[in-house]
Specification:
By secondary structure, the chain is mostly helical. The chain folds into 2 domains: 14-309, ABC transporter involved in vitamin B12 uptake, BtuC (Orthogonal Bundle), CATH 1.10.3470; 312-342. Helices cover 73% and strands 2% of the residues. It contains 15 helices and 4 strands. It has helices at residues 14-24, 26-29, 37-60, 68-85, 89-111, 116-136, 138-141, 167-189, 192-202, 204-209, 214-240, 250-263, 271-289, 293-307, 311-341, and strands at residues 147-148, 155-156, 161-162, 242-243. It has a two-stranded antiparallel ribbon with strand order 1-4. A two-stranded antiparallel sheet has the order 2-3. The radius of gyration is 22 Å and the shape is globular.
Length: 342
């Protein structure tokens, strides 16, 4: 009886199954180990954010240092819809995702013809523009205080309604969104579109020379990444029941970059998932020991960049490769000894 192997063209892989089981059972085991359920909500939201961001950094090689602008756009758009129009979870989510996509598409029109340091600097500039607007436009954004008391509307499925007021209910809602995003992005990066993105990362000029519209691909992936960041912002505003300008600041955009790099987004689809987990565990575990936990996380980032740029995922892949090679050599040696005995 043959055992079927998971491949890149599968909709579901064994890594997904393992991750889904761990996260799906999180409310059952997180409190007994000394943590709290809301931490699970935060981690999953930032995993969504990180996976969307990695479309740019890891797969396309486009370093965006202003992505917090789209995270914040989603949060503010969701809150404004609820506060200005009416309470409707689904319409507010759609409105926020569209708003983030449009914001990303506009920015992409200006940055997609750039690359490298110029691309990075332009994303910083646009990120600061969004942050400045959020700070100064008091009548709309609430200024430095942000939007407060954003209602957490129930998830209405016509047949039944799903109340999201408890952290456990909110976690499973966020988790379902995470399942959808993981499967969608996995198929995307393993499609022809994803292969073109990787070709652009490897050599943009060569991709253009063989006939691909590089500007269009960069515009699409930037806009799509912005929309996913906006979706994460929506979930964040639901969790916090507010939207704040701090999430659009430069340091907030830098954190998602650090998470992705430490996890190994350049070499693995799961890099952002690893990086987000490491960041929040550092915050909540090291934070108990010292107030300077962010300093230690920064040191981890520096050491990773200097000695293992492929991140934690890269180190794991290298260890598995070395282990597999050692096992193979051992088997070959045993076979050789067996043949000599004969």
């Amino acid at each position: 009886m043959s055992v079927r192997k998971f491949a890149a063209n599968d909709w579901i892989t064994k890594e997904m199954v393992l991750l889904f089981v761990i996260l799906g059972t999180l409310p059952l085991w997180i409190e007994p180990i000394g943590l709290y359920r809301y931490l699970g909500v935060e981690i999953v939201i930032w995993m969504i954010y990180g996976l969307g961001f990695n479309l740019l950094l890891g797969y396309s090689g486009l370093p965006s240092f202003g992505h917090g602008a789209f995270f914040g756009t989603g949060a503010y758009a969701f809150g404004l819809f609820q506060l200005w129009f009416f309470e409707s979870l689904w319409l507010a989510i759609i409105f926020a995702i569209v708003a983030s996509f449009i914001a990303g598409a506009i920015v992409a029109c200006f940055v997609s013809h750039r690359r490298g340091i110029y691309f990075a600097l332009m994303t910083i500039a646009f990120g600061q523009i969004f942050w400045f607007i959020a700070i100064k436009w008091h009548s709309v954004t609430g200024g430095e205080d942000g939007l407060l008391n954003i209602p957490r509307a129930a998830a209405d499925f016509s047949i039944f309604s799903f109340d999201l007021n408890s952290n456990t209910a909110l976690f499973y809602f966020v988790f379902i969104v995470f399942l959808f995003i993981v499967v969608l992005l996995w198929r995307l990066v393993n499609s022809r579109f994803g292969k073109v993105l990787q070709a652009i990362r490897q050599n943009e000029e060569r991709a253009r020379f063989i006939g691909y519209n590089v500007w269009l691909f960069k515009w699409v992936v930037f806009s799509l990444s912005a929309a996913i960041a906006g979706l994460a912002g929506v979930l964040f505003s639901m969790a916090q029941q507010g939207a704040y300008p701090d999430v659009m600041a430069l340091h907030a955009s830098g954190i998602i970059v650090m998470m992705t790099l430490i996890g190994g987004g350049f070499v693995s689809f799961w890099g952002p998932v690893i990086g987000v987990t490491v960041y929040f565990l550092a915050r909540d575990v090291l934070g108990i020991i010292t107030e300077a936990w962010l300093l230690w996380f920064g040191l981890i980032f520096v050491i990773t960049v200097l000695f293992k740029p492929e991140g934690i995922a890269g180190a794991w892949q290298e260890w598995r490769k070395t282990k597999t090679l050692a096992i193979s050599k051992h088997k070959s040696l045993l076979q050789l000894l067996s043949m000599r005995k004969r």
